[in-house]
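Design a sequence for this backbone.
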């Protein structure tokens, strides 16, 4: 305990206990401690230290992730992409339903809607000794009719047999024909979007009751069974 007091107490205490040469000997330092200048390279201070060459990796460096973590990152990226695609598709459907169309579906990257609300009363094919080139969907006069898909209005006005009709050319070159309409809300050359209200059910022309006569024409103008065409795009009557 006396020696400990000497180191802590300084020269005065050492003289008191030992006196003379003994006091000088007691004040000799056990080991000299000096402060070295900081190295120019901060990382040099870790050289030679235990684990000095195993510095922590950059937490933002993807290359530093282990294989299992890499798989998790890739799966997360895929999930984000899927979420964005679903949101994009939902926005297309929502836009197609904005005017009140009863149903909308995506076929590829294009929206298609159910053109009106009503009951299927006549099919495509032979009828009353002649070819019926469309389908009939019965409904009250004034029931809205919607554009099947994005299109340009080719005709809108009177037509023999149809009374009043609207003809649309779709972006893929096919056409849809809406006959016996009561009123048309579009004009020739106008661009319309899927689900946009273009007309309303009527009873004009050669008609035995209010209904929509719907035809589908292929690119070359030949008549297609509308039910087959519609069902391929998710629309059923």
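Sequence:
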């Amino acid at each position: 305990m006396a020696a400990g007091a000497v180191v802590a107490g300084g020269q005065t205490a050492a003289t008191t206990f030992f006196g003379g040469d003994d006091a000088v000997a007691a004040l000799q330092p056990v080991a000299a401690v000096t402060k070295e200048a900081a190295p120019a390279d901060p990382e040099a201070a870790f050289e030679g230290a235990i684990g000095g060459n195993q510095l922590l990796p950059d937490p933002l460096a993807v290359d530093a992730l282990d294989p299992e973590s890499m798989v998790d990152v890739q799966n997360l990226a895929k999930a984000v992409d899927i979420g964005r695609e679903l949101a994009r598709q939902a926005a297309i459907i929502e836009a197609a339903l904005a005017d009140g169309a009863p149903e909308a579906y995506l076929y590829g990257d294009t929206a298609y809607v159910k053109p009106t609300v009503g009951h299927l009363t006549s099919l495509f094919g032979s009828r009353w000794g002649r070819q019926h080139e469309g389908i009939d969907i019965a409904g009250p006069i004034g029931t809205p009719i919607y554009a099947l898909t994005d299109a340009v209005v080719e005709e809108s006005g009177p037509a023999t047999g149809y009374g009043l009709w609207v003809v649309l050319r779709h972006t893929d070159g096919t056409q849809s024909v809406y006959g016996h309409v009561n009123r048309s809300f579009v004009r020739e050359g106008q661009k319309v979007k899927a689900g946009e209200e273009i007309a309303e059910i009527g009873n004009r022309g050669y008609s035995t009751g209010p209904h929509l006569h719907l035809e589908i024409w292929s690119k070359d103008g030949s008549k297609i069974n509308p039910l087959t065409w519609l069902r391929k795009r998710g629309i059923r009557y």
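The two ends are 105 Å apart (CA to CA).
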